[in-house]
Amino acid sequence: MVVLKNLHQELSRFRVRVWAAGAFVLFCFGLLVARLVWLQVVQYDSFAERAESNRIAVVPIVPNRGLIKDRNGVVLASNYSAYTLEINPEKVTDLDGTIEALGQVLDIQARDKRRFKRLLDEAKHTDSLPIRTKLTDEEVARFTAQRFRFPGVEIKARLFRSYPLGDVGAHLIGYIGRINQAEKKAMDDWDEDDLANYRGTEYIGKLGLEQAYEKELHGATGFEQVETSAGGRAVRRLDHRPPTPGNTLNLSIDIKLQALVEQLFGERRGALVAIDPRNGEVLAFVSKPTFDPNLFVDGIDADSWRELNEDIDKPLLNRALRGTYPPGSTFKPLMAMAALNSGKRAPGTVIMDNLTYSFGGRTFGSPETDRPGPKDMRLAIVSSSNVYFYSLANEMGVDLIHDQLAPFGLGRKTEIDVQGEVTGDLPSTEWKRKKFRRPEQQKWYAGETISLGIGQGYNNFTMLQMANAYATIASGGQRFKPRLVREIEDVVKHEQRRVASDAREPLPLRPADVDVIRNAMNGVTLEGTSRQVFLGAGYQSGGKTGTAQAIGLKAGEKYSSIKADERKRDHSLYVAFAPLDKPTVALAVIVENAGWGSASAAPIARRVFDYLLMGQYPSEEDIALTQKGQSFAPVGAPRRAADVPLPGQTLPSAAIAASSASAPASAPRPASGASR
């Protein structure tokens, strides 16, 4: 059967198909051209920048962190370079498998893995994280030979912080550590320039001067512009800007004195602060026990952290800055100064001391060593009469005591140049209303005032506050903001910027009143409770011992009944200044749970004065006795301070010979404006 086709109709259909196909092809070509125009013209700048960024990498160069030195140029914090093995988790497909394989090439301990996991939890995924630090040359060579097996793993040269003297001065120097998430969040509030300066920086000051002077120590970040291969390897350097090292901090601290005091404490707990009353410079800032800041630089392991954090002696507590204690009898000269300044009692006013003072149906007693009799202000301080100061506190009242002693810096921050200082407690009626919540607790009772006179009750101060207060008395009313840093040195420009201790408005103390207190405190060292300690001293000083209750006693409970528990024993305190006529050092020291102030605290103060004023360093025998609380005046032949090396160091004979011909390097400098 023959089928006749409509050729005209078929041809018409064919043409339609051809046109449709042609239109489709043109449309596709139009899309390609449009896309090409979009990519090559509209998006050219963006893709060119991407291509360039793939070819060129800008790598931040972290600057050398600034040094920290003591007043004599001894380096307390420095840097060294070492290799680290680092993993970029974003470039590793099997992280656990990679770590296990690395363990077959290098020694990777369980603590390294735990630290890496902690860093991984804290860091961004794009961060390169260390799995091993401080590689030896042999380990570097061993990994380099097998690097092809480990994509995303590389060796980097890093700067590490070092504290050459270990635990000496750890609380004041502080330490650095890896920036955590909380710190990263806080850094988001920084201005753009500061934030840009920390690109590439992974470590930041965490405590002490490292934290307080972070931006001075950090320096300015540099950069390096390099051309990279498709695999991310650097091919050549195109441009660079070198980093600017951080500034050097020159401290007012004499680190040899610091080390001596820490040694004199031995295994005991406590604090000592020594200040130059002429300018507010801190000469020693001791908290015992201490810790090794080198443990924190590379990320402290869990066992070491647990050991420090759970230690009953609390080595991480900065007792000089944050430890508050009742001042005990060391408060009495301040009470006397307040009485003279307010006109409440004259130096010659005599009070009959019968060893007990009754008020409101309660009897306030005196130590068994006190002797009864009439006492004026000088004798009351020399003999440490409780009754004299019970009656004085009652006459003055809590608010007058507060108003007179607050200007000495008690119960408020001294604003020293480290963070974390606490205020302590100088009570008043207003203070108590704010301190407690229940109405019956907010009321001040007259009987509570009595114990304030002997430095007990609600009185609680830091040794920094006490040293600062007695520096004010020693200077005749001149006040300074205490400072640990005396100069900031620009290592590039070789310029030094003096960090002056801000002078505050002087207190209007009458010279005659100051002389009364000074002479009375001098009497303490000649005929009072510290006379045995200062026998044979080559200078005159003023001081006051103190014994403060560590815990409150229940009704009917006697101190002797808790003597067996060492941590319930009284604290031993001493405040002092020297030399008497023109004081160049004022200090406060506490030895926790050590009993009488003359037995433990005062001997440490004597040796500080001998060091600073006489250039003398105690004998080994004397140090051993002082550590046990069994010394008074120094025993054995004292050594020249310049001849004694720092812990862990040796003093070359040439250096000894050179130092023998010069004045003691540890002597405090004169006040600002005097010749250096």
From TrEMBL:
Residues 270-609 form the Penicillin-binding protein transpeptidase domain. Its EC number is 3.4.16.4. Its main location: membrane. The active site is at S329 (acyl-ester intermediate). It catalyses: Preferential cleavage: (Ac)2-L-Lys-D-Ala-|-D-Ala. Also transpeptidation of peptidyl-alanyl moieties that are N-acyl substituents of D-alanine. One of its GO terms (molecular function) is serine-type D-Ala-D-Ala carboxypeptidase activity. It is an enzyme of class 3 (hydrolase). It is a single-pass membrane protein. The chain crosses the membrane at residues 18-38. NCBIfam families: pbp2_mrdA. Belongs to the transpeptidase family. MrdA subfamily. This is Peptidoglycan D,D-transpeptidase MrdA. It comes from Pelomonas baiyunensis. The gene is mrdA.
